[in-house]
């Protein structure tokens, strides 16, 4: 994606406040799916970033979801924000727009919650089959089990996709128990400027997928207008929020809470051990288990993670981690091999004091990353 930063005005509808005319034009970009350039504008009333068009919904292929499970899914980021709920074991959780369902699975496995996920795409079926959790191919609306309320409602990178964010947040607020908290993340409109590196700007805009982006003030206002009190923060190019129906419920959350690397290692070990041999899940959990162990300098855990990772890669791709040259010979190596070889290389370099073998793994990682 190439942006052309410019000045002027644009008639782009803001999904947040409804204003349609006289917006501040920031940039345009050419997209393959329409003749006219797509316009990116800042709303003159609420400050949100509005994009002039989005693609119609499309389904990811099974290969796309395999890639997500093997490599892309940021389970540590999901777990970190879930920890901020401060909800005890046995709490009821709803994950709205849950995708493959890792939020639901982490809620159950790490925090002991009774969790349900709603996801209208095929991901709900794939995640339900792979994880064995309660995922439903449904949308949250006024008709969905109107008498059910939850202690934790989670919506990660969902708000920017909905056509009516005001109505969506009102629906969430209505489903919270008196002690319940709403946890969410969404891209930060404040990062949309020529000074932001494209590596950060591109995923925040996600041209064709995101309809709008909120500022920090705009998100606070949206939550407040739904009758919620909230704590909103900026982390990189992402906004995070914890909101509740009362200050008492909000104060019971744990804004500084986090998960430990050992919790993540344990989750990956358990989930990987229950996964089918040669599956994307077995590979993804084994690679993450190795990564978390090495990052935490937990080298005994890393050594224990090596055999499952080696076996998973051999079963799925015919890649022998004991022989990094097998990756160099692969015709279409998967990106998860970057993670596997890099962290195994660090393990050999730092813990086993074997720089020659470490270098072989680093070379393999770099070859795949090109």
Beta percentage is: 15-25%
Q: Please count the beta strands (DSSP E, at least 2 residues each).
A: 13
Instruction: Trace the largest sheet across and list its strands.
Output: 8-7-6-9-10-13-12
Rg from Cα: 22 Å
Give start-end ranges of low-pLDDT stretches.
none
Which series of helices and strands comes N to C?
Answer: EEEEEHHEHEHEEHEHEHEEHHHHHHH
Shape: globular
- Largest pleated sheet: 7 strands, mixed
Class of secondary structure makeup: alpha/beta
Mean pLDDT reading:
96
Query: Helical percent range?
Result: 40-55%
Would you spell out the secondary-structure blueprint of this structure?
Layout: E1 4-5, E2 9-10, E3 23-29, E4 38-42, E5 49-51, H1 62-72, H2 75-83, E6 92-96, H3 102-109, E7 114-118, H4 123-131, E8 135-136, E9 150-156, H5 165-174, E10 176-187, H6 198-205, E11 212-213, H7 216-225, E12 229-235, E13 238-244, H8 247-251, H9 261-273, H10 280-295, H11 299-317, H12 325-328, H13 336-351, H14 355-369
Parallel strand pairs: 6-7, 6-9, 7-8, 9-10
Antiparallel strand pairs: 1-3, 2-3, 3-4, 4-5, 5-11, 10-13, 12-13
Helix pairs in contact: 1-10, 2-3, 9-10, 10-11, 10-13, 11-13, 13-14
Structure notes:
- With 370 residues, the protein is α/β, with parallel strands linked by helices.
- The chain has helices at 62-72, 75-83, 102-109, 123-131, 165-174, 198-205, 216-225, 247-251, 261-273, 280-295, 299-317, 325-328, 336-351, 355-369, and strands at residues 4-5, 9-10, 23-29, 38-42, 49-51, 92-96, 114-118, 135-136, 150-156, 176-187, 212-213, 229-235, 238-244.
- The strands form two sheets. It has a seven-stranded mixed β-sheet with strand order 8-7-6-9-10-13-12, with helices on both faces. Strands 1, 2, 3, 4, 5 and 11 form a six-stranded antiparallel β-sheet that branches.
- The chain is globular and about 60 Å long.
- The two termini are 19 Å apart.
- The model has no long low-confidence stretch (mean pLDDT 96).
